[in-house]
Each structure stands twice: as structure tokens, then as C-alpha cells.
Amino acid sequence: MKRKIVIIFLLCNLFCCFANDALEEDLSYLKLVFENCYAGYEYNLKQGFDSQKAINEIREQYYIQAGKKEKINTYVLTDCIDNYFIKKLPVFDAHLSVSSSGHPFFPALETFYWALINFEKRGNEYFVKRNFVKGVKRNDKYTGDPANIFKVNDNKYIFGFFSDNKKSDPPLSINNKDFQFKKRLCHKIINNELVFGVRTTEKSIYLSLSDCDFASNNKKLHFQIEQQFKENIATLRKGNFENVIIDLRGNTGGQVTNVIPLVKAINHIDSYEDENDVDKKIKSIQRGEKTVYSPEMIPAIQEYIKRHPGFGYKSPDFEEYKSTHIECNNTEYFKFIPKFKGKLFILTDNNTASAAEELIAYLSIYDDITIIGSNTWGCADFGSVLEYFLPNSKIKLTLASRSMNNMSAFRNNYRWKGDGKGFYPDYWLFASVYLDRLVQFTNDKKLKTKLKGLDYGLLKSN
Question: Which pLDDT tens digit goes with each residue over 291-301?
Fold first, then answer.
């Protein structure tokens, strides 16, 4: 009997050691890839983040919740990494996430809400123009925070705010009295199919891009989309249009290199020489971008290449990855005088994200650009995301290898409000009235027929 008890005791100790060793190996790997592979590490370090202290807290909280005698509980460990590591980071990164099978943890983004009340501006003050809030009358004066007033049209404004639903909503103050109101969400599109369309009138061209990935996981389909996109760009080059409309609603990103030809083609007036200056300008506004290199990134890059055969990647020269270092883009300023003298309109919603936001940053090199819709997602301060898996629990981390939060294209763009809030539009739309606004802003009445159905989603070629 005593012999059986001793054997059971030894087996239990062996099991505990295995579980502890496995956990320690996972935590060591988490710390390693965070410090060596994550482009946001140096920014968080400067803000006082201590990765070892966070690892210790994860370990402590994990043992409290899961105990020391169990194998790794992936759900508990994922939850601990999310709460005691990722959410403790002082620098927000909307791409950064941790997940295990069936248990994804994504960054908590603030949502934009608005109230059904319209104002007009008189001098520096706002007065009720149209109202659906009980107790408020036309011409009543808005007495709240001006930061909660957003432009809809030339002299039409609306009350709105961002909230994570954890803090109290700002008051709707009219005549120094707070009123109750119903919160509303902005309309946004989910693209369930790939749409890369082009439609034209004599004055205007409309181009839709449902993503910037071009089905990279499917080599044949990727080639077909790439060819379609090239044909659309060719139409843009030939037309010399007064108005260029780019529809990025529901575009959650992908590879920005796929869509850079669009930025260049807009400037194509006389010849391909017109596009060379666009290349130089883009490189110059990438000043401040930083890219991380380290040996631990090599397997993640190889896996990424395997999952995206459409891009036709060859295995890169990993020589530069053999030592851990950061490269910073220090390209000198380039003065760009656009050949394109027309108007550029970009349609956005809260699902416009990542590479689509980087595309907007590059499109901003043109003089007359107007963004219409709602704020974009806000996940472009960091990019070029790779996946890393903890060796034993197989918990997945998504870590960005590029930092763009100090890149000129974003830092010097007044519309960019950072990760979590994205690009603010010049004209906010709180209902699907994109077509009416475009007809108004372009003064092209033929769009009314040509872009019929625009308010319901992206349009295919006709």
C-alpha cells in the first residue's frame, strides 16, 4: 500500500514539474518575441512598461486561477496574457491580439455614437436646426463641449462622441440644460464578396476596392483580381477625369503594395513620367517608419509566405534577420507638385482599416481630397503583422513588425486621430446618403444614375 502511495506521489510531482516547465517555456517565449519581434516594444518601454514584471503577474494570476497541478489551461492563460500584459501596455495597438482555439481576445475599441439632432453654425456657436430630442426646440443654443460637434455638410452639424461603454456618456447640453437622447451607430458595410469595380461618366470615375489583399491565399483568384485592378487603373489613366471617387467602405486591409499603383495612376496626365514623382513622394512621407528584424521572425515569415501563395513570394534573404535590430526610414523631404488638378473623394466607414488606412495616408498627397462617411477603424499605427505561437499551449500572438505611428504620412495628417479612432472624415454621414453627397460635391448629376445602389454597398463594374 505504501509503495502505491509513493508511486502516485512521484507521478504527481512529475506531472507538476512538467506543467510548470511548460508554462515557464511559454512565458519565456512570450517575453522573447515581444521584445525582439514587436515594433511597438520600444515605444512601450519608453512609457515605463516592464515586460518581466508583466510576465510575473501573468504567472501569479494563472496559478491563482488554474492551480499548479494542472496542465496548461489555454483559456486561463490566454485571458491572463490579455488582461495582465496586452491591456497593461501604455501604447495602444489595434493589431495586437492574443487568442487560443475558440477564445479570441481583441483590443477594445471605442465606438462612435451620435444623436438625432442637427445644428447650424452662427459665428462660433451652434443652434438647433432640426431636432428629434424631446424638450428641445429649433434655434435653441448648444452649450456643451464643442469637441462633440461633427460636420455633416457645409452648415450642418451633429452631436456625437466616442465611448467604450464603460464611462458615462457626455451630456447633450442645450441652453445649459442636459437632455436625454437615444444613442445611434454609424452605418457600416461588411464585404462578403470581392468587389473591384469601375464606373465612369464624362466628368467622374468611381473605383471600388473591397480589400487590399486580392485573395492572396488563392493564387489563381489573386491573379484574376490583380488583372481586373490593372484594367480599372488603365481606365483611370485614359480618362483625365475631374472627379476621382475611391470607395473603401468595408475594406479591412491586406497589402498596401497591391494598391499603390492607384495612388500613382491618379497623377497620370501626360505620361508614365508623371507617376515617378508619386513614388518619390510616398517614400519621403514614409520618413519615421521603423521595421524590426530578428532571428525569431524567420519561422513566422516563412509561414506567412506559405499561407499567401497569391503574392508569389520567394523565400527572402534572411541575412538581415540574423541579428536583432531596427531600421528607420530617414528619406529626405520631397516637394511634390501634383499634375492631377481635379477632386479626389474617398468613401469610408468604420470597417475601413489597416492597409486601407495607409492607402488614405498616401492619397493625401493630392491637393483637393475629401473624405466622406464615418471614422475609419483606426489600426495603422503599427502594421505588417506576423503570427507567433507559444510552444506548448499554442496560444497565438499577432505582433506588428512595422511601426508607423511616427511616420510622416500619419503624423502630419490632421485627419488621422491614431489607433482606435482612425481617420476622421471631412463630412460625417450618419445614414446611407453617400450618393446624394457625391452628386452635390462633384456637381455631376449623371452619377445619380451611374452609381445607383451606392448607398447599399460597393458597386461592381457595369
Answer: 999 999 999 99
Three-state DSSP at 358 gives helix
Please answer whether residues 214 and 257 qualify as being in contact, where contact means their C-beta atoms are separated by less than 8 angstroms: no
State whether residue 113 is helix, strand or coil: strand
Q: Are the beta carbons of 377 and 106 closer than 8 angstroms?
A: no
CA atoms of 449 and 462, how far apart (whole Å): 12
For residue 135, report the phi and psi dihedrals to the nearest 5 degrees. 95, -5
* Ranges of H-type helices in 318-421: 355-363, 408-411
- Residue pair 44/403 in contact (Cβ under 8 Å)? The answer is no
At 273, the amino acid letter reads E
User: Quick one: how many helices (H) and strands (E) in the chain?
Assistant: 12, 19
Q: Can you say whether residue 215 is alpha, beta or left, with left for phi > 0 and alpha for psi between -120 and 50 degrees? A: left
Q: 221-230, pLDDT tens digit by residue?
A: 999 999 999 9
Question: What distance lies between CA 38 and its chain's CA centroid?
Answer: 17
Query: What distance in Å separates the CA atoms of residue 70 and residue 19, rounded to the nearest whole number?
Result: 7
Spell out the residues 6+ positions from residue 205 whose beta carbon is closer than 8 angstroms to its own: 198, 199, 235, 236, 239, 241, 243, 244, 245
Start-to-end CA distance of the chain, whole Å, equals 84
Q: Of 8-22, 222-236, 269-283, 304-318, where does the model show the most confidence?
A: 222-236
d(CA 90, CA 65): 25
Helix (H, G, I), strand (E, B) or coil at 163: strand
435: number of Cβ within 10 Å: 17
For cell 519608453, the residue is: 46
Q: Which residues contact 429 (CB under 8 A, 6 or more apart)?
A: 152, 186, 187, 372, 373, 374, 437
SS3 percent helix, strand, coil of the chain, rounded to 5, is 35, 20, 40
Averaged pLDDT, 359-365? 98
Three-state SS string across 308-319, please?
CHHHCCCCCCHH
Q: Are strands 396-403 and 97-100 parallel, antiparallel or unpaired?
A: antiparallel
The count of other CB atoms within 10 Å of the CB of residue 290 is 20
**Helices 74-84, 51-66: inter-axial angle, 10-degree rounding:** 140
DSSP 391-407: TTT--EEEEEEEE-TT-
- Cα→Cα distances 401→261, 328, 359, Å: 23, 12, 18
